[in-house]
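Hey team,

Filing this mostly as a record. A colleague (T.K.) asked me to run one chain through the structure pipeline before their review meeting, and I want the input and output archived in the tracker in case anyone asks later how it was produced. No errors, nothing strange. Just documentation.

Input sequence:
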Amino acid sequence: MKRAACVLWLLFCLLPRPLGGEALSAPAAPSAAASVQLFDRAGRPLRSFLSERETYSEPVSLSDISPWLVLAAVAAEDRRFYTHAGVDARAVLRALWQNLRGGGVVSGASTITQQLARAIEPRPKTLWGKIREAWDALKLEREKSKEEILQDYFNALEFGNMTQGVQAAAKFYFGVPASALSLAQSALLAGLIQSPARLNPLKNPKGALLRRGRVLEAMRKNGFITAEQYDLAMKEPLGLSRGERPFSAPHFARRVYEMAPDAARVYTTLDKDLQLYAERAVLNHLSKLKDNNVTNAAVVVLDNATGGVLAYVGSADFYDEAHSGQVDGAAALRQPGSSLKPFVYALALQNGLTAASVLQDEDTFFEGGFRPRNYDESFHGGVSVRRALACSYNVPAVKAAEPLGAARLLNLLHDLDFRSLSRAPDFYGLGLALGGGEVTLLELANAYAALARGGEVRPVVFASQPRLVTRTKRRQALPPDVSYIITDILSDNAARADAFGLNSPLNMPFPAAAKTGTSKDYRDNFAVGYTPRLTVAVWAGNFDASSMQKVSGISGAAPIMHDVLLYAHDRYPSGAFERPAGINAALVCEESGLLAGPDCPHTREELFISDTVPQKVCDGKHEASAAALQILFPVRGDVFKYDPALPSAGQQLHFKTAGAQGPCVWTLNGERLEGDGTDIWWPLEKGKFALEAACGGQEARTDFQVL
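Output structure:
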C-alpha cells in the first residue's frame, strides 16, 4: 500500500505543466506581514515591533537582495529552479527511490516553489499533503514569474530567532541589509533554510559553519562560484552581529505604534542623540536625589515651529519594575503646581492687569476657606505682577485669578489643549490657579510651546511619514503681545532672584524663559524651559504618589531641564524672542505701578500692551513699603554635599538675605551664629538644618541639608 502511494505521488508530480486554458488560481503570497519599524528623524532605527505572525519582518523586492543569496538558495534548495514548472521531475525520481526503499514518504523533493506554497498554506506531511503542495506549486508557476516566486520566497522564509524574511535576518545576524550580504553570509542564511532552529548560529555556530560549507560546496559544484571564491568564503569567520534589535525611546515608540499599527515604516520626529542625552540627564540627577525619595522623572522636548517631539523620556528606567518603569510619565496625570501660573497671569493681562500692577502678598482667606501659603512660608507685601510670577508667589496668583473666576481660567486652559482637565469649574475652584488639577507633561509642554509661538496652539507631531499628530486643532489661544510679556517675565532672571537667586537652574546663557511647579506635599514637581525654537518640560517624583523629601521644582526637575535645554540649544540654536507689534515700554514706579515720577526711589522699565500703559504719574507721596525680609540663599530644600577630600576651611555656605533692614540675628537649629550682617559665611557640616534670620523686626526662615 505504501509503495502504491509513492507511485501515485510520483505520477502526479510528473504531470505536465497546466496549459493556458485551464482555470487555475495561485494561492496568494503571504501578506506583507511586516513588522512596524520606527526610525528617528535622521533615519536611524529606534524599534521594531512583531508582525501579526509574531516575527520581525521587513519585506523587500528581489532587486534589494544580494545575488549571492539567490545563487546560494538555488544551489542548496533547488538547483533546477529555473527549468522546472514547479515540481522537479528528476528530484522526484530520486525521492521516489528513497521513499520506496524507506517504505513511505521519506524525501519530498520540495522545490523552492513548493516551499513557498507550504509557507503560504502549510500542509500535513502526508501523501495527500504532498500532492496538494505540488498542485499549489504548479499553480504558482502558472501565474507568477520565477523572479516573483523568488521574491515571495525570500520574504516568507523564517530564519530563526523570530526573524522572517531575508532583510530581517540579514540585519539581525550581520547588521547589514539583504542587498549587502557577502558570499559567505549568503551561504549561511541559505543553509538556515533547512533547519533554522537546529542550525541557529547564535547557539550552534559549529553546526551553522558546517552547513554553510556544504552550501558553498554546492555552489562550487554547480559553477555558481569559482574555486578561489569558495576558498575565501570558507575562511571567512561567522562574523555575527550581537543579534540585538533596536529598543530606543520605549515609551515614545509604544505611543507611536499605537497611533500607526498598520504602517510598515514610520519616520518619527525624534532626535536619537537628544533622546539619549535626556535619558542620561535623568539618571544623573536622580542619582543625586535618591536619598530624598525621588525615584523617577520624565522629559518631553518639542520643536516649537513644527510641534515635533524631539525627545520623550517616560521614566528613568523602562526595565525598573520596582519603580514602575514601564509607566509613561509623559502621559501620566499629575498635579502641575505653579507651572499653570503663567496662564493665570496671561488671562489677567487681558482683563485689566499689567506687568506693573501691584498685588498684595499677604495672609488671605478666599471663598470656601481657601488660604494659600507661599513656598517660603512668608509674605512679601506689595509685589508687582512681574515679581509675583517670576518668584511664583501663591497669594498674588490667586488674587489675580479671583475676579476672573475658575470657569474663565478653565476655558483658557482648554483652549491651550489641556484635555485632562475634564471636570466642572466648581470642582477645581480657585485652586486651579495653583495647579489644583491633573495634567500630562506633554500637555504642559505644548501649552508652553504655544507661549513661545506667540499664543498659537498647534498639534503635537510624532512622525512625519506617515504624519502622526494629536487631535489638537491649530488656533490662537492667546494674543501675541500677552504671550510675549509672559515670556519676558519668565526670562527675567533679576525678577526671580528674590526667590531663586541669580544662579538658579532657570538661568540660561542664552535667551530662554523658564518656570517651575511643585504640587502639594512634594508629590510632583515640574520645570519647563523654552527658547523661540524649543520647549523642554520635565516632571520628577514617584509613580506611587509618595512624597519626596522637600524636593521642589527648582531642586528636582529644574536641574534636569537646565541640562537638557543646554544640550538641545547647541543642536537647535535660536536667538532672542521677537517682540510683536503692540508692545510699548514705559518707566514705572515699582511701589505704585504708575508712571515713575521724579520722587520715586525705585523704578524700572516695564512692558505694556499698547492700550494699558498707565496714564497717571506717581506723585511720590505713597508710602514706600519696605521689602519683606527673605533668605535668598540657601533656597528651601537645597541639598549640599560635604567633600572630606577637601580642606574644611574651603567648604562654606554664604547665607544671604534680601529686604533686610539693619543688623540680623542668625540662628541655625535654634543656636545663634556669629556675625550680625545681612549675609554671613558658615562652615559646612553634615546634617539637616533650619536657618532663621531676624532683621529689623522681620523674620525669615528656610531649611537645607548637607550630605
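Quick notes for T.K.: The two ends are 88 Å apart (CA to CA). Residues 591 and 625 are 7 Å apart (CA to CA).
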